[in-house]
């Protein structure tokens, strides 16, 4: 028997094993990005210190965020309404579409005040080894939108998959007579737009090159 934890030797490594309900919560926290077992255990014990009301508010907030936030019908960005605030904003230039991998990249570009176009969230990048074929991404919707655009800026990350996806998209859109451009990168190869600063992103948009 143990109080709430015991040290067990598993595959030659000492590991703390907690009571079953605690292990269950630790496993849930570990699903979050950047959270290892130690951090997850710390969070789990922090939850035990909260009042019942606080725990309920915490779990309700998780459920509500998941239930209330959906994908914008036009650009696939996160939205509470059917159409997101960016697509609904009549002051945005709808003829310039910035294509990004995920909603986090939209947030990064929104910090750049110079950009007044709209977005298209692909929902990933083409990666056959991971089973992500073009039909799994919001590419067909993009082609439909591109027909009314003057320029499509492909702002996928500078990774192998990101470049492959950018090439694929440009081959589909260029025949429509629409200008297709790629960001000029100050972002290192293999880097992530999500973590790029405002100045770097601003320059990347300003210096974009036609495909
Ligand atoms: Zn939208």
Widest sheet, order of strands? 6-5-7-8-9
Shape: elongated
Question: Beta-sheet strand percentage?
Answer: 15-25%
Helix/strand-derived category reads alpha/beta
* Sequence stretches where pLDDT stays below 50 over 5 or more residues: none
H and E string:
EEHHHEEHEHEHEHEHE
Number-wise, the strands total 9
- Could you tell me the mean pLDDT? 91
Main sheet specs: 5 strands, mixed
User: Over all CA atoms, what is the radius of gyration?
Assistant: 22 Å
Heterogens: zinc ion
Commentary on this structure:
- The chain has 211 residues and is α/β, with parallel strands linked by helices.
- Helix content is 39%, strand content 18%.
- It contains eight helices and nine strands.
- The strands form three sheets. The protein has a five-stranded mixed beta sheet. Strands 1-2 form a two-stranded antiparallel ribbon.
- Helix 1 crosses helix 2.
- The longest helix is centred in the N-terminal third of the chain and has 17 residues.
- It is elongated.
- The relative contact order is 0.09.
- The structure holds zinc ion (ZN).
- The site of zinc ion (ZN) has 8 residues, from helix 4.
- Zinc ion binds next to helix 4.
């Amino acid at each position: 028997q143990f109080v709430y934890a015991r040290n067990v030797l598993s595959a030659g490594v000492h590991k703390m094993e907690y009571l079953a309900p605690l292990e269950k919560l630790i496993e849930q926290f570990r699903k979050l990005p950047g959270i290892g077992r130690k951090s997850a255990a710390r969070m789990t014990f922090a939850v035990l210190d909260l009042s019942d009301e606080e725990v309920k508010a915490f779990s309700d907030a998780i459920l509500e965020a998941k239930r209330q936030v959906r994908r914008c019908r036009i650009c696939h960005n996160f939205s509470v309404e059917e159409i997101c605030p960016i697509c609904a904003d009549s002051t945005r230039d709808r003829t310039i579409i910035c294509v990004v991998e995920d909603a986090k990249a939209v947030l990064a570009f929104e910090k750049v005040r110079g950009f007044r176009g709209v977005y298209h969230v692909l929902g990933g990048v083409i990666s056959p080894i991971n089973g992500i074929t073009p039909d799994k991404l919001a590419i067909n919707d993009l082609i439909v939108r591109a027909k009314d655009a003057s320029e499509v800026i492909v702002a996928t990350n500078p990774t192998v998959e990101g470049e492959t996806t950018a090439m694929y998209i440009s081959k589909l859109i260029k025949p429509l007579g629409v200008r297709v451009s790629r960001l000029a990168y100050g972002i290192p190869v293999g880097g992530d737009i999500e973590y790029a600063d405002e100045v770097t992103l601003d320059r990347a948009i300003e210096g974009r090159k036609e495909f």
